[in-house]
Design brief:
By secondary structure, the chain is mostly helical. The protein contains two helices and no strands. InterPro entries: Desiccation-related_membrane, YtxH.
Length: 165
């Protein structure tokens, strides 16, 4: 999700840069048109005074247009930079928030795993102790059975000896 947002923002920023290039090109075309009109005015046959007025008017208009376009471009660049800074800060804040959220989730999961391991460890320990006790009890029964069998064997041997005498 964060990656998609970042890609979207980068694409948007590229479009803004492309628009600025187009604006610059349009400004250059306008300047070229003014220069062309000055050249045309110089090559057309007019009285000197009329020609000077036309040149002066064209020059004044061109300077005013260039100043106006320059200010517009400056403003657009400043706005774009400010917007970029704002977006970068916003992304940075969002990333920090996500980082903290993930950190909390990881911590919670680690605690859950730790509790499960401790529970399993306790269960295993209890089962091992129970198995040990069961083995001891079974061993005692086997020993008792062996003693009884031994006594029965001694008795049987005695009886067989007595019968043989």
């Amino acid at each position: 999700m964060l990656y998609r947002n970042l890609v979207h923002k980068v694409k948007k920023e590229k479009r803004n840069i492309e628009r600025k290039k187009q604006l610059k090109n349009a400004t250059l075309v306008g300047i070229g048109a003014v220069i062309g009109s000055v050249a045309a005015a110089l090559t057309t046959p007019k009285k000197g005074e009329d020609l000077r007025k036309d040149i002066k008017n064209t020059y004044t208009d061109t300077v005013d247009n260039v100043k106006k376009k320059t200010e517009e471009v400056k403003t657009q660049i400043k706005d774009t930079i400010d917007e970029g800074k704002y977006k970068a800060e916003k992304i940075k804040r969002e990333a920090a928030e996500r980082k903290e959220e993930l950190k909390d989730i990881i911590h919670e999961k680690a605690e859950e795993i730790k509790e499960d391991v401790n529970k399993d460890k306790s269960d295993i320990h209890t089962k091992a102790n129970n198995a040990k006790k069961d083995l001891k009890d079974t061993g005692k029964v086997v020993v008792e059975d062996a003693k009884d069998t031994k006594e029965d064997l001694y008795k049987t041997i005695k009886d067989v000896k007595s019968d043989l005498k």
